[in-house]
Amino acid sequence: MRTLNRLLLAGLMATCPVVALAAEDAPSADPDVTIRQEGDKTIQEYRQNGFLYAIKITPKNGKPYFLVRADGTDANFIRSDQPDMLIPSWKIFEW
Asked: Region 31-58: what's the mean pLDDT?
């Protein structure tokens, strides 16, 4: 009986570091926000686990608006306040 208890204790002690590593790699619930300036606009990019899901654009003169993914998978963005407005995404040149 003692050897069984010792084996169980050794097994539990061996799995503790694995559980700690798994907790560190868990996805975060908080979004990563990147803020940058482009001309007279402030652009905030919202990412969740590296996936860009929304962009907030704040013009110098005007009210801010959000661009969100149209279908959630590709890079087609639409305005959240005007979903019928088309945002151009042409490739002019590709190397």
From this structure: 90
77 phi and psi angles, rounded to 5 deg: -110, 145
DSSP symbol at 28: P
Cα 49 from Cα 57, distance rounded (Å): 21
| pTM of the model as a whole | 0.56
Structural domains in the chain, CATH included, are 32-79 (2.20.130.30)
* Cα–Cα distance measured from residue 77 to residue 48, given in angstroms and rounded to the nearest whole number: 16
Identity of the amino acid at 19: V
Would the pLDDT of 18 be above 60? Answer: no
CA distances from 37 to 10, 25, 44, 49, 76 (A): 55, 31, 9, 23, 22
Residues facing residue 61 across a β-bridge: none
Q: What single-letter DSSP state applies at residue 26?
A: S
